[in-house]
Amino acid sequence: MEIGSKIKNLRVLKGLTQEELANRAELSKGFISQVERDLTSPSIATLIDILQCLGTNISDFFNDTDDDQIVFGKNDYFEKTDVELNNQIQWIIPNAQKNIMEPILLTLEAGGSTYPDNPHEGEEFGYVLQGSVTLHIGAKTLRAKKGESFYFTSDKKHYITSKSGAVLLWVSSPPSF
To answer: If you write DSSP's letter for every residue of 110-168 in order, what string do you get?
Structure first.
């Protein structure tokens, strides 16, 4: 594994010269140069010292998140059809429950609804792509039609219904679907 370029990138991001990093890690400038060019490999103890001087740790250093998927297509979606509620949910960002928010594409057939959601900490946002929906938030009943959006805090019991059917983008934070 070539770790030299990763170390060099961290060093440059921290605004350190090879000599400054070497002094902080109690190593020679020549050794840092050789490590960055992958001409030599540091021991684990030395690597830990270098990474500590660069403000990171070995776990984060080897946790390569650069390959995380950013763009998702229909083949990546996870779909669930609920015959009882007459709706379909498409999780358009897979594994979003680990994120701060969770966007879904919700299709309500005529007479469809979502399960009533009990009050919880969080926020809900929606944008109606087709049709119209009725929002039931606590004692309030509100309507939103194609091209309209809604936002509310999730501190009251809430759910959505549609008499004629609708498709909406729904974002929940934190994830609750």
So the answer is: TTEE---B---SSEEEEEEEEEEEEEEETTEEEEEETT-EEEEESSS-EEEEESS-EEE
Q: Which of 90, 89, 103, 92 is nearest to 69 (CA)?
A: 92
According to the model, what pLDDT value does residue 77 have?
Answer: 84
- Length of the chain in terms of residues written: 177
Q: What one-character DSSP code corresponds to residue 82?
A: E
pLDDT of residue 60: 86
| Cis before 119 (ω within 30) | no
Region 117-122: mean pLDDT is 88
What is the widest separation between alpha-carbon atoms in the chain? 73
Phi/psi class of residue 38: alpha, beta or left (left: φ > 0; alpha: ψ in -120 to 50)?
left
Beta bridge partners, 144, equal 133
What is the CA 52 to chain-centroid distance, rounded? 27
For position 64, what pLDDT does the model report?
64
What is the mean predicted confidence (pLDDT) over 146-166? 94
